Structures are given as structure tokens and as C-alpha cells.
Amino acid sequence: MIFRACHWKVQFPHAPMVMGILNVTPDSFSDGGQFLDPKQAFEHALQMRDEGAGIIDVGGESTRPGAEPVAESVELKRVIPVIEALREQKVPICIDTQKPAVAREALAAGAIIVNDIAAAREDREMWELVAEKGAGYILMHMQGSPQDMAKHPTYENVVTEVSEFFASRLRDIAAAGVSPDQVMIDPGIGFGKNSEHNLQLLANLGHFTIHQRPMLVGASRKSFIGKLLGGDVTARLPGSLACAVWAALNGVQFIRAHDVAATVQMLRMIGEIQQRRQA
Ligand code: 7PM
After folding, report:
1. What ligand 1 atom has the least distance to the C-alpha of 219?
2. How much is the pTM?
3. Is residue 264 assigned to a domain?
4. How far apart are the CA of 63 and the centre of ligand 1, in A?
5. Among the listed ranges 113-122, 131-140, 230-239, which one has the minimum average pLDDT value?
6. CB 241 within 8 Å of CB 266
7. Ligand 1: distance of its center to the CA of 277 in Å?
8. How many domains does the structure of the chain reveal?
9. Mind telling me the catalytic residues?
């Protein structure tokens, strides 16, 4: 299995990689407003790179439940200066956007992967762009939209429904001209799922290997961790690390995280132990 995004390739098996979260927004649920200034955003990205992040996910629109959509011009003003500044830094950049126009500018500025949480619901333009540029694409499952997804998530079986979503979208994406090598799949923890759904997805990550695509999991600081263990958003690191180690031990290749240093160290330790297993 291989993942390709523009000039960048990762051949698997490969040690799990951490995707550091850079929210250039005033209202993200756990770090809103901290990195709205391009200089501060840039510095935070460099810090995450130095801590061992393999990819930086740059987003200019909050996707927390109930968040209001942001105008294209606002999103561009937030993300493009940061991506341009990071271009020489040789750290793979992922653009977190649902808007094809923002993705296009971001790819021109140096991003190589598109994190489209909407999975091109509205139109196929995003896939056409990804095909044209040879960019990477994160195919994430979400029930509903960011505005209404938290209301009443319902599934007969969340694991089989998410898996069927992957199968059908992977077909559509291929039909749009995107190579399967360009796509990673993501169960979308917290996107139209309650705590029980999130736990069932994590418990059954192995089911998604049938799609033969690398997987990304993002559980970092999400509210189900707080609901289960108590504690506000600043006290969710132990629960977040538990999800990350579980994901890594269950075949997940990419972990989306806020706390890069802690996550990278934990994964390195797991790797050191795992290498020494005897038959
Ligand atoms: C509720 C849901 C609150 C999501 C906050 C969030 C993911 C993502 C986000 C993810 C991919 C957060 C977010 N989560 N993109 N964007 N996968 N691909 O924790 O799990 O930052 S937003």
C-alpha cells in the first residue's frame, strides 16, 4: 500500500505518523483564537514539526458542532499566508476546508493534501481538483452537516454504515479520476456520532482495512473523552493518548492530534516495544 500526495509518497508498512492540528480560527473548541495571527500560527506549526509531526493540518473554518460557516475570503485570508510561510519548511501541509476554491489556492501555495470533511457532498469540484493536482485526499465520514450533526445521530450499526460509506465514496472518487493511492479514509470521530458510536468505531477499526487504504483517526480532545472520563477540554490528554495508542495498535497510519510532543513520544515508545516482539 502506498499513499501519494503531489511529490510526497509514503510506503506502508510505516510507523504511524502524527498530523498536527493548526486552527487559524477565533472559535475552535479547544484552542480557538490562539493562532489567528499568521506569525503565531507559523510558530506553532514549526513547534509541531520540531516535536515530530509528519503533517500539519491547517484550517481556517471551525468544524465544531453548531459552528457557523465562514466566507471564502475570510478563510483564504486566514490560511494562505500561513501555508506560504510554511512552504520552505519542508513539512507536508494539509488544507482543512470544504471549499474547492480555498483548496485550489492552498494547493497553489504549497499544500499537498485536502482534508474535506464534507466529502464533496455538494458537488464533485473538490475531487476534480484533487485529480488535476495529484493531491492527497482525506475521505472522512460525517452524518449530517457540521451545523446539525450533533443533534441526534442514529445508526443501525455505525461500523457497517461507515464502511459502506467508504466503499461507495471510494468508487465515486475513482470515477472522478482520483487514483486510490491519493486517498486515506477517516471514520470521523465526533462527526454525527455520540460517545457510544465513537467507541464502537474505535473498537472496530480493523473492519476498515478491507478498503486497503491508509486510515486517519482524530479523537484528540473530543467531547466523548470528557463525557467518559470527566474533565474539560484542557484535561483530555490521557484519554486522547489512549485513543491514539489504540488506533496505532489497530493498524491506523495517521493520527490527528493537538498535543504533538506527547503523541509522538507515546507512539515512539510503542514502536520500540513492538519491534522487540518475539514470534
Ligand atoms: C467536534 C468534531 C469537535 C470535530 C471538534 C472537531 C477531524 C477533522 C476535525 C477528524 C479529520 C477537532 C474537530 N476533526 N478532520 N477535523 N478528522 N479528517 O477536533 O477527526 O479539531 S475538527
Report:
1. 20
2. 0.96
3. yes
4. 7
5. 113-122
6. yes
7. 34
8. 1
9. 222, 256
